[in-house]
Amino acid sequence: MTLTDGVGGRLRGGKENQMSTGLLTMLIAVPAYAVVLALFWVMWLASRTRREKTVAIVAGIALAVWATLATTLAARGALVQPNGRTAPPVGINLLAALAAIAACLALSPSLRRLLSNQKHLIRLNVWRVVGAVFLLLAAFGQVPALWALPAGIGDVLIGLTAFWVAARLDAPGGRRRAINFNLLGLADLVVAIGLGMATSPGPTQLFHTTPTSALLTRFPLALVPAFLVPLAIMVHVASLWQLLARSWAADTAPAAGPERLRSGGA
């Protein structure tokens, strides 16, 4: 299916009407590395023992190394789709990152306990306001509106409401509100991933838009699917798992809202 993107049609036509790589790097890379610092700080605040402090430091270093590796791969063009037949490098990277995160969480109860503060987990989603950049790129005709509008608007809404949802977690209905917030956040990521693949050159392309989503595989925008998206999925899953009263860490009771507290729940 071939689609001509109408958003930003009047702005299209030359590099002078496009967002510069330098500005885009600042708008994407700065939040990415800020997330590393924020996640480390969340884990450090939650650490109570020497072992947990060590785990927090090791996890923080691992996040920094991952962010640096993702930056290096993106800058060298390793995430660009080589042809129309091979598996998308960005997709492979995303699956590998999710598998590594799942393994780390499954194998380390200490790491899980460091990620058990619901309010902090929800607040971490504030970085999603970066979705506004997607909307600007669509306006400049650098990415397809078919991808940018749902991905950008969804991200901005999640980012803008993160602190509000966290602040009202202990209020009546706060737990249900947080569950819905996480479900909507995950749904937004799934839609963004799906439409990104469907509008990018390669074997998964379904919509032949002008432009395509090829910019998502190039530095610096490739940091979003290569680093920020798997982290966001991890944060949502960790939060949801606890909000739904699943066993998380051996020394951490399931997350409880006011309704459970009033009924004598942990």
Question: What is the topology?
Answer:
Blueprint: E1 2-4, H1 21-46, H2 50-75, H3 89-107, H4 109-114, H5 118-123, H6 131-139, H7 145-167, H8 174-198, E2 208-210, H9 223-243, H10 258-262
Parallel strand pairs: 1-2
Textual characterization of the structure:
The protein is mainly alpha-helical. It has one domain. It is built from 10 helices and 2 strands. It has a two-stranded parallel ribbon. α1 packs antiparallel against α2 and α1 runs parallel beside α9. The protein is globular. The N and C termini lie far apart (53 Å). The C terminus is likely disordered.
Task: Sum up the structure in keywords.
single chain, 266 residues, mainly alpha, two-stranded parallel sheet, 10 helices
Short synopsis of the structure:
The chain has helices at residues 21-46, 50-75, 89-107, 109-114, 118-123, 131-139, 145-167, 174-198, 223-243, 258-262; strands spanning 2-4, 208-210. It is mostly helical. The protein has one domain (20-78, 86-262).
Rg, rounded, reads 19 Å
Instruction: Return the structural class.
Output: mainly alpha
The number of strands is 2
The biggest sheet, with number of strands, parallel, antiparallel or mixed sense and barrel status, is: 2 strands, parallel
Number of helices: 10
Tertiary shape? globular
Series of H and E elements: EHHHHHHHHEHH
Strand content: under 5%
N-to-C CA distance:
53 Å
Stretches where pLDDT is under 50 for at least 5 consecutive residues are 6-13, 251-266
Q: Could you estimate the helical fraction of the residues in percent?
A: 55-70%
Please, what is the average pLDDT?
89
Number of domains: 1
Strand order of the largest sheet: 1-2
From the structure provided, what is the oligomeric state, counting identical versus distinct chains? single chain
